[in-house]
Amino acid sequence: MSRAVVLRSVVADLNALVEAGTLGRWALCGVLALAVWGASRATLDIDVLADPAQGHTAAEAARELVFKGWTLVEHARYPGDPVPEFLRMTYGGVGVVILVAHRNWEVAMLEEAATVPWQGVGIPSVRVEALAAMKLRASGPQDLVDAGSLEGLPGFDRGSFAAWKKRLRVRGSM
Q1: How far does Cα 17 stand from its chain's mean position?
Q2: What is the rounded distance in angstroms from the CA atom of residue 90 to the CA atom of residue 95?
Q3: Around Cβ 168, how many Cβ atoms within 10 Å?
Q4: Where are the beta strands (DSSP E) in 2-84?
Q5: How far apart are CA 3 and CA 5, in angstroms?
Q6: pLDDT in tens, 27-80
Q7: Contacts for 78 with CB less than 8 Å, ≥ 6 apart
């Protein structure tokens, strides 16, 4: 299965969970989000930030995705960790990591997400300034490069970026 076909299926399946009331919202938040915003970097995985709908859990979302042909590799919960809960899944041979939104700033990223047209499909994505702050927060060498490439995009709002850095308690710059 081609990556474009997998991506279309992932988008359709996650949107179906929103429509069914299992997920509240979802948005790309990793390297593929970089590409959607115009700062390409090769990757095979798809990283998503999502919040279960009121009264639902990430485990329920995982069960529904497995029913749709996804494979659950791991459902991890680490209270107090920088990533307290995630689903590591695969679909069509592509890894999909669903980070479960628990913190207020993660929920805010979902609330502010924008649907961006990419390869013929509209894909919800974390706003570019929030994504840059998220990359700075992760602070790995490639994350810092990624954040810098986002800063150079047309329309990058430095004020919004500064607000996201403050919200995520990120010091320093790209």
Answers
A1: 16
A2: 4
A3: 16
A4: 23-28, 46-52, 71-77
A5: 5
A6: 999 877 877 887 776 666 899 999 999 999 999 999 999 999 999 999 988 777
A7: 84, 85
| DSSP assignments along 82-111, one per residue | SS-EEEEEEETTEEEEEEEP-SHHHHHHHH
Residues of the chain with CATH 3.30.460.40: 3-126
Which residue is it, tokens 């081609």? 2
Q: Which two tokens stand for residue 165?
A: 């850095």
Smallest CA-to-CA distance from 74 within 89, 85, 60, 96 is with 89
């060498």: which residue's tokens? 141
Query: How many other C-beta atoms are found inside a 10 Å radius of the C-beta of residue 57?
Result: 14
CA distances from 73 to 1, 29, 79, 98 (A): 19, 20, 19, 11
Handedness of CA 131, 137, 141, 147 (dihedral sign): positive
The two three-digit tokens of residue 50, written as one number: 């999502």
28 near 46, Cβ under 8 Å?
A: yes
CATH topology of domain 3-126: Beta Polymerase; domain 2 (3.30.460)
Report d(CA 60, CA 52) in Å as an integer: 9
Quote the mean pLDDT of the chain: 88
